[in-house]
Amino acid sequence: MGFTLYDQQIHVVKTAGELLFDGYEDNMVLMGKHMFQDVEIPFDRVGWFYTRNNSADLIGHYNMHTGADDITKLGSMGEWNYKPRTDFFEGGCGMLNGSAGELYPPGLSKERPVELFTPDMCRTLPLDFEEEVTVHGVKAYKYSGGQRAVDNGTLYPETACFSSGEIVPSGVLNISSCRFGTPVFVSFPHYYGADPFYLEQVEGLAPSKEKHQFFMSMEPTTSVPLDVAARLQLNIMIEPYENVGIFSGVKRVFLPVLWFEQHVIMPPELSGEIAFALTVPSIVRVTGIVMCVCGIAMLFWIPLERMIFRGRRVVAIGSKPSPAGAFNGVHAFANGAEKGLLHATEKNGTPITTLLLEKPEKQPLPECVGDRRAEAECFPLIDGKGATIVKS
């Protein structure tokens, strides 16, 4: 009745701006707001991304883990709209798994998928490891959306809770419970990776891995995203309704409406910084090893040095100039039990003479050692210089 009253058709012709961000007025929306006043409808125009520009309200409130207590939870979802799970899917399908896309815990695994929570779909999208790649010279793990990501229980029983009671072939995600009951299904562009059932319904589709794959390439140590291509397609399920005249004769079909791509790749100039950051732990590790080895060597060298120079003495003697006949300022002498070496140097213009004495192992020092007056008689030096012998 309403469709006939407002002269509604199955298809409408609008500009790209009206269909995407500007929106357009629709009499059915106005009628619905008057008929269901107890239901809050957050828009007054029809547009796939209407009111989305510069708005954070549509994605809800996020509560994410910082990793302060457990680094493995860094960036993972804690609450969405102040709840630990969604109200749109039952069982494990309603859990807030994965990250919002900004942060991931360090240390990726090829066996563990990367999970991305998407508020527009009110669910988590799993990405499985595909291969190792290189992005501007930096090694990365590539995770991509495969059949499991868009399955609804047909191929993987654990995904059956995402079907919302609508059993369809694998390849599309039923998000009608998240979109006010609108029969909206999400797939990869051109039904990439979907059951051939969908390709047979629409002409002109040509799925391509290069153009339509959803993937994230991430550095495995730091989990920093290096190359991300988020590609999704919106589809409307049209099916016959016997009580609605304009829908009474249509076939059940999943009609593609639009697909979009958000592609972000690391600038080449940042690749050097990331490569350097990856070498820092190795540099710190090698530096620590070298310092430990040097410390151990010093612990062994100090007592060894004492053993080598045990029994030697250093004696400072008078400041008189060394004799002119000294050979290179050095005089050798021997006096009974002591052997010595007289070495003349100069400091600040004043000659300084140093006497090095070596004590034989089994010969005791003379009794005069320690008595300054007696030492001059026991050790007559060149030019009559006095010496002081220091015991160890």
From TrEMBL:
Q: What is the lineage of its organism?
A: Eukaryota, Metazoa, Ecdysozoa, Arthropoda, Hexapoda
According to its UniProt entry, the function of this protein is described as: Plays an olfactory role that is not restricted to pheromone sensitivity.
- Its name, as the record gives it, is Putative plasma membrane glycoprotein cd36
> Pfam families from the entry?
CD36
Q: Where are the transmembrane segments?
A: 283-304
Which keywords are on file for this protein? Answer: Cell membrane, Glycoprotein, Membrane, Transmembrane, Transmembrane helix
Q: Which superkingdom does the taxonomy of this entry point to? A: Eukaryota
Where does this polypeptide localize?
A: Cell membrane
Give the Gene Ontology MF terms in alphabetical order. Answer: scavenger receptor activity
GO CC list: cytoplasm; plasma membrane
> So what family is this one in?
Belongs to the CD36 family.
Kindly indicate where the leader peptide sits in this chain.
none
